[in-house]
Amino acid sequence: MIVPMHKVIVLCRAAGREAGLLSLRQLGVLHPVLERVVEHEDIESARRRLEHIRRAAEILPNLPRAQPSGKSPGEVVDELSRLLRLRRETAEELELLRQECARVSPFGDFSPRDLAALAEKGVFIRLFQAAADSLPVVPAAALCLETSRTRAAVSFVIVTVGETPEIAAQELRPPAMSLADVKSRIGELEATQARIADEIAGFAGDRSALARARAEAEEMVQMTEIRAGMGRAMDGVVYLQGFCPSDDVSRLRDAARKNGWGLVIDEPAESDLVPTLIRNPRWLQPIEAVFELIGILPGYREIDVSLWFLLFFSLFFAMLVGDAGYGAIFLGLTLWAQRKFPASPTHPFTLLKITSVATIVWGVLTGTYFGIPDLPAPLAALKVSWLGDEEHVKDLCFWIAAIHLSIAHVWNIANLIRSPQALAQVGWLCVVWFMFFSARSVVLNLPFPSIMTWVFGAGVVLIVLFMTPRRNLRDEWFNHVMLPLNLVGSFVDVISYIRLYAVGTASFAIASTFNIMLAPMFDGWLSGLLAALLLFVAHTVNIVLAVMGVMVHGIRLNTLEFASHLGLQWSGFPYRPWQRMRATSA
């Protein structure tokens, strides 16, 4: 559920501002909203220090058994910054020298000083390159020496005495260093880079200390930004406003009495941008992993769809993957990963367990195990024959569509029950079921109930009459203009659920085709080994495609089709209370 929020203003004396901010941060219940965005020298200084520490921490290798260097975090940061700067300068020079080496190599090793000495005596040696098939004409008084040739270009030098005639080719500037000196310098810089890497690795044991320093620096940036962004109520009194969950307001009141703050608590106004905090029961929390993965969150005044998202996402996952064998692999890998990484968040693992079990159940009911066509009798006995008919599975997809979208409109009816707009949602409910029977008639050639035409007409009338409150008709008249397109869109939404059948069938077809193609190769042990390897690769690719199908189609049906019928725009941003930061070395 979406936790109710209160709008809060905390007032304190300007002289006690620092202590008040520290107490608020320690309390950790206020999502601050700054009165103004201020650019201040202290803020810039804190940000520079944070960036300084962040860059130093990012270059440290993860060596679990490394010992701390014994230096303070500040000394470690300064030393790592020096090494980082030296590594960057070395890398830039090294790249230039490698380019110079590649440019000069076709002409061999020679001393630029010798070229300059000859030029002073009137002997000019110039470097040229041309296309391999277009060597230019050289004057009779000049000597042309070819030094290198490739398929793309030819390199040559022109030697002249007393004059420098024009040559129809690209002339290259003479090098500043000999090729031997360039290669020597490259070797020195590569050795320097290796030494820098060793010195950086010597601070690997300071990762935890730098993580703490980074957290402290981030806290300092927040503190300076909030301090500068506080409002001034009157002389000697400053305030900070924000949002606090309703069940944490009592803690804020206690802190205000203890610290002598003034406190204003009110309901958020319609114009306020209120953060969203979702608190679900433990069994429903796994779906939050999907929300975090794709970065969506319902707005504060929108609806929390966690329950229906979890139920239908699990169903969509099972149908799109569609194979009990694949589901067993997912479940096994999930259990292994959870044991391998015990410190990781549990929500993603729990979600994968739910979807894996759902996939196994669906695969058992449809008799799908790695795309094997002929199943052993015990497995074949578990198959539901009704699901073996493609037309029945398509029909099931349309039933899922109608039920899924109907839940959205019934939910809207419940929320608008005291408003005439609830009747418009009744009209949309009628439209959904009309589109359901239309889709079955068009795609499956099933009979269309004639009464649904009247249901559709009644639904459209209800939508037209009640979709927009009369007082808003002047500003929202375009909703009526868009109604024909929205009706067509409703039909498209119902039809789009056929993707559950299409993607699942494609996955089975790929697996079955490879099984049939490679089955004859199992006659010999060598060919059988090759066939097993090819099958492993084929099924691995098929599993990856199935997972991509879930990410595209399974999530889309919830976040787009279902959400659009519900009127959910995913406009929320997360509630982030101001609190002490936890240091992480990762």
Biggest pleated sheet: 5 strands, antiparallel
What's the Cα radius of gyration?
Answer: 36 Å
- Note the total helix count: 19
| SSE order | EHEHHHEEEEHHEEHEHHHHHHHHHHHH
**Arithmetic mean pLDDT:** 90
Tell me the structural class: alpha+beta
Extended strand count: 9
Task: Give the amount of beta strand, in percent.
Answer: 5-15%
* Shape category: extended
Helicity level, as a percent range?
A: 55-70%
Low-confidence stretches: none
Terminal residue distance: 32 Å
List the keywords.
586 residues; four-stranded antiparallel sheet; 19 helices
Summarize it.
The chain is built from 19 helices and 9 strands. It is an alpha+beta fold.
List the helices and strands and how they pair.
Blueprint: E1 5-13, H1 17-27, E2 31-33, H2 41-58, H3 73-104, H4 112-120, E3 123-131, E4 143-149, E5 153-161, E6 170-172, H5 179-201, H6 207-229, E7 231-234, E8 237-245, H7 249-259, E9 262-266, H8 288-294, H9 306-321, H10 324-340, H11 347-366, H12 377-381, H13 390-415, H14 421-444, H15 451-466, H16 478-481, H17 483-496, H18 499-518, H19 525-566
Antiparallel strand pairs: 1-8, 1-9, 2-8, 3-5, 3-6, 4-5, 7-8
Helix pairs in contact: 1-7, 2-3, 2-6, 3-5, 9-11, 9-18, 9-19, 10-11, 13-14, 13-17, 13-19, 14-15, 14-17, 18-19
